[in-house]
Amino acid sequence: MEKLPEFLVWYAVFLFTLTFHEGAHALVALRGGDDTAERGGQVTLNPLPHIRREPFGTIVFPILTFFMSGWMMGWASTPYNRYWADRHPRRVAAMSAAGPVANFVLAGIAFVVLRLLLGSGFFEAPHRVSFGHMVTPTAYSAGGFGTGLALLLSVALNLNVLLGLFNLIPLPPLDGAGIARGLFPGSFGALLDRLQGNPAVSMIGLLAAWRIFDFIFPTAFAVVLHLLHPGVYGS
User: Fold this and answer.
1) Torsion of CA 187, 192, 198, 199, to 10 degrees
2) Neighbours of 191 (CB within 10 A)
3) Rounded to an integer, what is the distance from CA 35 to the centroid of its chain?
4) Where are the domains of the chain?
5) CA distances to 40, 43, 141, 172, 187 from 86, in Å
6) Which of 37, 72, 120, 126 gets the most CB atoms within 10 Å of its CB?
């Protein structure tokens, strides 16, 4: 129960991030001529259609991972018309890229708000940073609201950077594979298309992508930290 307030903040950020990501996919597909996701009600920031489509990935798995590891993982998905995708590979690339772009937009907003609050003296650099602790309230902002806002913005920044970069890795079933398939619709794109529909390959792709990401995210985190607190934590 002592972790419940932290869980609620994490889950609110996580669910909005996932909904924004999938809604961006659905909107760009609709603008590109495929109304499959719109008919499923997914061109929206309402999380319920996305939860109904992937209840395990949006509810069960995030809860399990948070209480087992202290941070949250999960997934959602956006349907699209395969015939439309075969006819319009460039539009598939745009649809696939929309999700990571949405994550980077949210990360940018969180970063700007954090910088403004740091500049105003509401927050300051903490002695020890972590995924959910990029800033700490100052003396006049200390309390439940300041602590909760620091957690919310820290998680929003890092979670969206993480999801944006992770999804750009060009391995199925990640968005990067859809981008590569759309940009290179020849033999390479056809290979990715065949692999995308194989559950075993998708699982291998996720595991391989996570290993790759182990090398990417520490560098990305260090860059974000340096930009957020220039000169505070060294080079």
Assistant:
1) 170
2) 14
3) 23
4) 4-228
5) 21, 22, 54, 17, 13
6) 37
Residues in the chain: 235
Q: Which two tokens stand for residue 29?
A: 């597909």
Distance, in Å, from the CA atom of 156 to the CA atom of 154, rounded to the nearest integer, reads 5
pLDDT tops 80 at residue 183: yes
Beta bridge partners of 130: 133
Position of tokens 């602790």? 133
Residue 172 pLDDT: 86
- Tell me what the mean pLDDT of segment 98-109 comes to: 98
3-state secondary structure the chain: CCCHHHHHHHHHHHHHHHHHHHHHHHHHHHHCCCCHHHHCCCCCCCCHHHHHHCHHHHHHHHHHHHHHHCCCCCCCCCCCCHHHHHHCHHHHHHHHHHHHHHHHHHHHHHHHHHHHHHHHCCEECCCCCECCECCEECHHHCCHHHHHHHHHHHHHHHHHHHHHHHHHCCCCCCHHHHHHHHHCCCHHHHHHHHHHCCHHHHHHHHHHHHHHHHHHHHHHHHHHHHHHCCCCCCC
Q: Residue 235 pLDDT > 70, yes or no?
A: no
How far apart, in whole angstroms, are the C-alpha atoms of residue 28 and residue 25?
5
